[in-house]
Specification:
Blueprint: H1 2-22, E1 25-26, E2 29-30, H2 36-39, H3 41-52, H4 59-67, H5 82-87, H6 89-92, H7 97-106, H8 111-121, H9 131-163, H10 173-185, H11 200-211, H12 228-245, H13 249-277, H14 288-309, H15 311-321, H16 335-349, H17 353-356
Antiparallel strand pairs: 1-2
Helix pairs in contact: 3-4, 3-9, 7-14, 8-9, 9-10, 9-13, 9-14, 10-12, 11-13, 12-13, 13-14, 13-16, 14-15, 15-16
Length: 366
C-alpha cells in the first residue's frame, strides 16, 4: 500500500529529527524518543533500597519511595511510582499473556504490590519476620516483580500500538518500546552500560560473574566483562525498535518472544545462587534469614513460569525454598536437588544450560 509506505517513510524521517534533537544512549541502546523521565524511576528504587539497607531499616521512608516516589514525572506532570506498576496492572496489563499467567498463579491482579506491601508493612505472609528478611522481600519484589513485569508490558503495548497503526503519535509504539529499555536499564547506567545501575539490567551484570555468563571481553574469561544476556537483549531490543519503526509488527512480536526468556535467566540464576548460599550443606552463608529471604524473593519472581512448565516440579521447588515463619534456615533436600529440578524446566522456559551457566562464584554483590 503506497500510503502505508509513505507514512512509514515519513515517520523514519521524523525519527531521525527526534534523534538529532533528543538523542540519548543508555547501556548501549539508542532511543528514538525522549524517555529520560521514565529511566529515572530507578532513583526511587535506589532510595527505597537505601532505606532498607540501614542497620535498622526505615520501612516508613522505604514505603514512601515505593508508593509515592518523586523522581519520575509523567507527561501530565503526575508522579510515576513503582507501586503504580502493579496497582494499575489489572486494567493496563489485562489480557497480556505473561501477566495473566502470573495473576492466575498468585490469585491476584496486584500480586507484585501484595508481596512488596506485605514486606514493608509487616503483614501476612511476612508478619513478624526478621527486618533483614522483610528488607530483601521488599527490595527484590519491587524490582523483579513490579518493574520486571512492567518492562514486558511496555513491549506488549508497543506491539499493540504498531498493529493499530499508531506509529506517529506521542505515546506510540516506538515510544513504548523505548520506555521498556528505560525501565529495564535505568538512568544510573552509563551510556555504554559500564556502571552499576539499579534495575534488572544490573542484575544480569551481577549474575554473569557468578555463573560464568559474561562476554569475557578480550581475555575470554566468562566471569569478566559484560553480561552476555544483556548483550543479546541489547541486540534484540534494538532490532525490535527497528521493526517497529518499519511497521513490521509481526517481527517485533517474534523478538518479544525471544526477549522474555533472556530477561528470565538472571532470575533463575538468582534462585540457584541463593539455594546454594542458604543450604547448610552448601554455602551456609550467614545469616540464613537473609539468604533464604533472597532465595524466595527470586523464586517468587519466576514461580508462575515454573508452574506453567511443570506444576508438580514447581511445587517441589517451592516446598524447598519458600520462606515462611516456620521455615527460615534450611533447604530440606539440599542445593543439588533444587539445581536438578530447576534445570528440568529450563527447556520449557526457552533457556539452555549455557544461558544459565554454572555457579562458579557465589560471593560478590547480592
Amino acid at each position: 500500500d503506497v500510503m502505508i509506505y509513505f507514512r512509514s517513510a515519513l515517520f523514519v524521517i521524523l525519527s531521525l529529527y527526534v534523534q538529532a534533537s533528543t538523542a540519548q544512549t543508555l547501556a548501549g541502546y539508542f532511543f528514538n524518543t525522549d524517555v529520560t523521565e521514565h529511566s529515572e524511576l530507578d532513583l526511587d528504587q535506589g532510595e527505597m533500597e537505601g532505606f532498607l539497607d540501614l542497620a535498622t531499616p526505615d520501612f516508613t521512608s522505604a514505603t514512601t519511595s515505593y508508593a509515592v516516589g518523586g523522581n519520575s514525572v509523567k507527561g501530565d506532570m503526575s508522579i510515576r511510582t513503582i507501586k503504580g506498576f502493579s496497582t494499575s496492572a489489572p486494567t493496563k496489563l489485562a489480557g497480556e499473556t505473561l501477566y495473566e499467567l502470573y495473576r492466575a498463579y498468585w490469585g491476584s491482579g496486584t500480586y507484585a504490590d501484595d508481596f512488596v506491601t506485605a514486606a514493608l508493612g509487616n503483614t501476612a505472609p511476612f508478619a513478624g519476620m526478621a527486618d533483614i528478611s522483610r528488607s530483601e522481600f521488599a527490595a527484590k519484589g519491587s524490582n523483579y516483580q513490579n518493574i520486571w513485569m512492567y518492562v514486558i508490558h511496555e513491549l506488549e503495548d508497543a506491539i499493540l500500538d504498531c498493529v493499530a497503526g499508531d506509529i506517529t503519535a506521542n505515546g506510540d509504539s516506538v515510544n513504548a518500546w523505548d520506555e521498556a529499555w528505560a525501565f529495564y536499564a535505568g538512568s544510573t547506567e552509563a551510556g555504554d552500560g559500564t556502571t552499576s545501575g539499579l534495575m534488572p539490567y544490573a542484575l544480569a551484570e551481577k549474575r554473569c560473574k557468578n555463573f560464568g555468563t559474561c562476554t569475557g571481553d578480550a581475555d575470554g574469561d566468562p566471569t569478566i566483562g559484560k553480561s552476555s544476556i544483556n548483550a543479546r537483549l541489547l541486540s534484540l531490543y534494538s532490532a525490535g525498535q527497528a521493526s517497529i519503526i518499519a511497521g513490521n509488527c509481526g517481527g517485533a512480536a517474534t523478538i518479544l518472544r525471544q526477549i522474555v526468556p533472556l530477561m528470565t535467566a538472571p532470575l533463575v540464576q538468582g534462585v540457584l545462587r541463593y539455594a546454594w548460599r542458604g543450604d547448610p550443606n552448601g554455602g551456609n552463608i550467614q545469616p540464613p534469614t537473609k539468604q533464604r529471604a533472597e532465595g524466595w524473593a527470586f523464586l517468587a519472581a519466576v514461580m508462575p513460569q515454573f508452574d506453567y512448565c511443570n506444576a508438580a516440579r514447581a511445587a517441589q521447588i517451592r516446598a524447598e525454598m519458600e520462606y515462611t515463619s516456620t521455615l527460615a534456615g534450611d533447604i530440606p533436600s539440599g542445593y543439588a536437588a533444587v539445581y536438578g529440578m530447576v534445570h528440568q524446566v529450563l527447556p520449557c522456559l526457552g533457556l539452555t544450560c549455557a544461558d544459565i551457566g554454572g555457579l562458579v562464584d557465589a560471593g560478590g554483590p547480592t
